Amino acid sequence: MSPTGGGFCFEQLVELAGFSVAQAITKVYSKDQFPAVAVFSGPGNNGLDGLVAARHLAHFGYRPRIYYPKRPDKPVNKGLMRQCELLDIPFVESPDAGLKDADLVVDAIFGFSFSGEVREPFRGAIGALSKTSLPIVSVDIPSAWDVEKGDIGGNGLLPSMLVSLTAPKEGAQGFQGIHYLGGRFINKHMDEKWGLNLPDFPGTDQCVRLGSAADTQTRASVGNRMDDHFLHNVASQSLF
């Protein structure tokens, strides 16, 4: 997600992404049936999206709580945490505390840039989520999935819903659950440049449901390439 590609700064993109995740959740899991939401946030950008989503869910009338064991000492992280604290959103100290009496889980642990072996404390967190019967909403790509090949190790999460950001990732082509696209910030020039052929977003919505595996497949590989370009440019601007 590039400040040079679309004119956005990093913080704006995180806000738009997290807002789209929260809105997508409201389309499927109502606050009346799924009021208590456990948000599991990782140390990177995906975790920031989770913090933003938690804040918006609180404003929407849900009762989020956040498991955020690795908290980088950066202004954007501290600012988003402070916003959640001022809404009385609790930060819990263990996966079990997050899952206790929860109705829904948001998996914002690892996203597009994940690679290598899952280490603690996130190995235990993913293990706990793998055992729960609660519905799980993953942000951008299910945690521990390879962004190009999917759940190749067989150790990744199997969420009931996925909210891809910017464009579906190649590794999500085999995803069989409810699939939304979020992040309404791609202008027509970027869409044409990358050949995305993104679907129209309905009305004022920040998310759109993808109706079939074909919707994912036609956009997935270019989504990977575009996000790689975005991440490179954002990093070069020292916005992480």
From TrEMBL:
What sort of enzyme, by top EC class, is this?
Answer: isomerase
Whether Acetylation counts among this entry's keywords is no
Span of domain YjeF N-terminal: 1-198
Cellular component GO terms, alphabetical: mitochondrion
Q: Which UniProt keywords apply?
A: Isomerase, Metal-binding, NAD, NADP, Nucleotide-binding, Potassium
Reaction equations catalysed: (6R)-NADHX = (6S)-NADHX; (6R)-NADPHX = (6S)-NADPHX
| Entry EC no(s) | 5.1.99.6
Look up keyword NADP and say if it applies. Answer: yes
Q: Which SUPFAM superfamilies match?
A: YjeF N-terminal domain-like (SSF64153)
Entry's Gene Ontology molecular function annotations: metal ion binding; NAD(P)HX epimerase activity; nucleotide binding
Q: Which PANTHER family match?
A: NAD(P)H-HYDRATE EPIMERASE
Q: Kindly provide the name given to this protein in its UniProt entry.
A: NAD(P)H-hydrate epimerase
